[in-house]
Amino acid sequence: MAVLTESTEDVEVVHYMNESLSKETLLFILKQLGYTAEQLLRKNELEYKELIKGKDLSEDAIIDLMLIHPKLIERPIVISDEKAIVARPPERVREFFK
Q: Which domains does the chain have, with CATH numbers?
């Protein structure tokens, strides 16, 4: 967040842990990132280990679980116009807005 507040870019922060995402929004984010749902998962979360790990789930099933358990979604995600990144490490934000 500190890197974003230092930026001169106009940003909107969406706290999707508190404000639920729609399925359409999550699909848009995945498309902008060029990721599958599996690639956007936080694999160290308990929910991942209990609900997903080792199971043969469809893309749609993983997305549904991400919507129910937003903790599973890797963060932070930065989106601008037609591109997006998972901003880890945070320095990637500076590169993103160059």
A: 2-96 (3.40.30.10)
Query: Which pairs with CB-CB distance under 8 Å and at least 24 residues apart come from 88-95?
Result: 90/2, 90/3, 91/3, 93/3, 93/4, 93/7, 94/3, 94/7
pLDDT digits (tens, 9 = 90+) for 65-81: 999 999 999 988 888 87
Between 59-68 and 23-33, two packed helices, what is the crossing angle to 10 degrees?
120
Q: Retrieve residue 96's tokens.
A: 């993103």
Q: Where does residue 97 rank: exposed (0-12), middle (13-18), buried (19+ CB within 10 A)?
A: middle
Q: Record the pTM.
A: 0.84
